[in-house]
Amino acid sequence: MTRTITTIVFALFISLTTALFADEAIQVVNFTNGTEIDYPVALLRGRLSDESSTEIVCTNLSSPKASRQIHGDAWKGQFKVLTELVPGENELELTSGEHKTTLKLNYKKNSNPLVVRMIYMTDSTGDTAFQTPYENDPQNYKGKLDTALKLMQCFTAETMNDAGLGRKTFNLELDENGDVIVHVFKGEKTMEEYADLSDHEWYVKVYQEISNDFPWYNGKNLVIPAYTRFDSETKRAKCHTALGGGSLALFGSGCMYTWPDSLDGVVKAFTDSTPVDKERFHDDTAYRSVYWAAASTTIGAALHELGHTFGLPHSNQPRDIMTRGIDHLNRFFVMREAPSRYNRDWLENMDDRAANWSLISAAALNVCPFFQDEAPTENQGRVSLQIVDDGKAVEVEAENGIAYFGAMSDGHRQFFVAPQPGQELPKQMRFTVEELKDNVKNFKDGMELHAIDRYGKTRSVRIRQ
């Protein structure tokens, strides 16, 4: 009897010691046990006691999906790893070397009917093939687009949270398996006929073609044309653009071959230093000319164009997705930056130079109807934005409270005011034009002012020099 008790006590001691050691060996720092989120893919960040480890694996023990196990990145005692959740409670097992720990996250689907739709557009031939240097490319456009949209959604939620606004993000159209619905849309013209149009004409044509099947009032449409082709003679990409606004974001597929086609392939895609063959393929890499840079810039640029559909202009913050933060989306998901044309060695400590939604943009997204957890509230409240005192001042009024006021010039938003989360929203604001001039550069071109109330209703006015 004594031996049995001793054995039980010893086993309990070993179990507790192992659990404590596991907790110390692998620590998630951005989620706590039982956290609930309303989007399917989360990025776990944390610390490892083993500073020599270069990999961490997250297995979702609750998931039957192919994405149940995902390999993440580790370096010098820190890690990042993605996980895809299924509705309900998810038991996650994180493993690095001999160390192991668990974390539970809850996924409750977002009920907002306003969604971002993924449309893969062919020309009139119906050919879904994208341009690629791989001879036996599986042409898994559905996997690439599913992964890209989930990365954009995850990135948005986590950087909004970093900005102090909570894990707010846009909702996606998902099927019963939790995969992004990719609508294949056959265009009316051939690739050459689309290529003969100017970028603006092409954008308008695509807008017209898809509007009947994909109306603007309940969705933002991200359209990726399969028929983007690099012309080796002219060294230009045909049917490639980056335009967004209203309900349409249009971005070419010229670098889609560099995109990961699964969540488990994200680290590889964002660290692949294979040189882009600039004689045969589009080099949309911000002059870095390697595959990881093409993946980062082009997925980031597609998100940037979606940002315009959410009502955002360019900003003056260099890391913001609404500027050139698009080039550094990779840094959000991996621990180091791989070599490129610019840096011959791996770069470390990239977190403070990674892409984000800077507060000047994030605070506006915070009240965007597409970023709410449920169906948006019908807004009957009045919003007024007027130039007064013979052009010397600006007055803002909103019956439901002013959630955001911003000023832009030279194509970039440079100044904003937004109450802190939880703070009572003012119903009136007043600014002198001289105050605004002090915060806005290049005023010679005038200023565009925007006011947004708590439900996302917007008013704009332009002040001319």
Explain the overall architecture:
There is one protein chain. With 465 residues, the protein is an alpha+beta fold. It has three domains: 2-107, Immunoglobulins (Immunoglobulin-like, Sandwich), CATH 2.60.40.10; 115-365, Collagenase (Catalytic Domain); 377-463, Sandwich (Immunoglobulin-like). 22% of the residues lie in helices and 29% in strands. It has helices spanning 2-25, 141-162, 191-195, 199-210, 266-269, 291-309, 330-333, 359-365, 433-439; strands at 26-28, 35-37, 41-48, 55-60, 69-75, 78-84, 88-96, 99-107, 115-122, 171-172, 182-186, 219-225, 229-231, 236-238, 242-245, 248-251, 314-315, 383-388, 393-398, 402-409, 412-417, 428-432, 447-453, 458-463. An eight-stranded mixed β-sheet has the order 1-3-6-5-4-7-8-2. Strands 9, 10, 11, 12, 15 and 16 form a six-stranded mixed β-sheet that branches. The longest helix has 24 residues, at 2-25. The chain is globular and about 70 Å long.
Q: Could you give a quick summary of the protein structure above?
A:
By secondary structure, the chain is an alpha+beta fold. Helices cover 22% and strands 29% of the residues.
